[in-house]
Write a structure and sequence with these properties.
- With 256 residues, this protein is of the alpha+beta class.
- The protein folds into 2 domains: 1-71; 75-255, Cathepsin B, Chain A, CATH 3.90.70.
- It has 7 helices and 7 strands.
- The chain has helices spanning 4-71, 102-113, 120-127, 135-145, 159-171, 219-226, 236-243; strands spanning 88-89, 151-154, 176-184, 187-199, 204-209, 213-217, 252-255.
- The chain is elongated and about 90 Å long.
- The N and C termini lie far apart (115 Å).
- The relative contact order is 0.14.
- The model has no long low-confidence stretch (mean pLDDT 89).
């Protein structure tokens, strides 16, 4: 027969083991509950972040639509305005075929017209990369390379304001760098070129395109492309770039 003291010790030990097992089970349950809560919190935060991104992107795209509608003004009055009766054309702009980038090529063409010898390769060798991918950077580089002039970027101009500013710049004898949609083969691209002539009465715009040719087009086609309305099936990342201000529509660079 087991002594009472030993029985008591055994019972106490059993109770302790039982209590510990219950405690451990409760602790495991709490840990699982805590981990589950953390996972739910993380998922909730991720969903909130995704929702915020969607809202911001949607807001930016709506803003872009509004900006685009605001620039697509009726320009028919230019054909009746005596100011534009005289065609304007800048002589001496030699069109090249870009080897590095359209931005660098436009700077090379402007340099050559201005009596300089700066080339695309010179710019690339200096930087080791292309630094004119955005309008602001292109404007900055124009001012750096041609300190005798002041280059100013004009973004999201209305159709009539763009025509007027470009005409004045050409009338002063200076080519006009600008941004637009241009096809490389069959593919639409975001592109820089030099506007060198405007003949409004004959509905003709003349552009030195660094894809290697002089391009003549109507005012309507010109504005369709400066507004990027002509860019069919524009990839979403380009639309997002316009929405965030990385690229701009109806944008020219006046040089004075």
């Amino acid at each position: 027969m087991i002594p009472v003291a030993i029985q008591t010790t055994i019972l106490d030990a059993g109770k302790s083991e039982s209590t510990w097992a219950i405690f451990s089970a409760e602790k495991d349950e709490e840990d699982r509950h805590r981990e589950g809560g953390i996972v739910k919190k993380v998922i909730r935060i991720i969903l909130i972040v995704i929702a915020l991104i969607i809202v911001v992107v949607a807001g930016l795209l709506i803003k872009l639509q509004i900006q685009t509608r605001q620039i697509l003004t009726d320009y028919s009055e230019i054909y009746e305005n005596e100011k534009y009766y005289t065609p304007v054309y800048v002589e001496g702009v030699e069109t090249i075929t870009q080897n590095v980038s359209c931005g660098y090529a436009c700077i090379e063409m402007f340099s050559s017209w201005n009596g300089g010898s700066l080339t695309e390769e010179d710019l690339y060798d200096e930087y080791g990369k292309v630094v004119t991918s955005t309008g602001d950077k292109f404007c900055e580089e124009m001012n750096k390379r041609f300190p005798e002039y002041t280059t100013t970027i004009h973004k999201y101009m209305t159709n009539t304001a763009l025509i007027d500013a470009a005409y004045d710049n050409l009338a002063n004898g200076l080519p006009v760098p600008f941004e637009w949609a241009a096809k490389y083969g069959d593919v639409w691209t975001l592109h820089y070129s030099l506007l060198v002539g405007m003949d409004i009465p004959n509905d003709k715009i003349t552009v030195a395109n660094p894809y290697g040719y002089v391009e003549e087009l109507s005012v309507d086609e010109f504005l369709q492309r400066t507004s990027f309305e002509a860019y069919e099936n524009m990839p979403f990342y380009f639309r997002l770039a316009f929405a965030t201000g990385m690229f701009e529509k109806n944008t020219i660079f006046t040089v004075q």
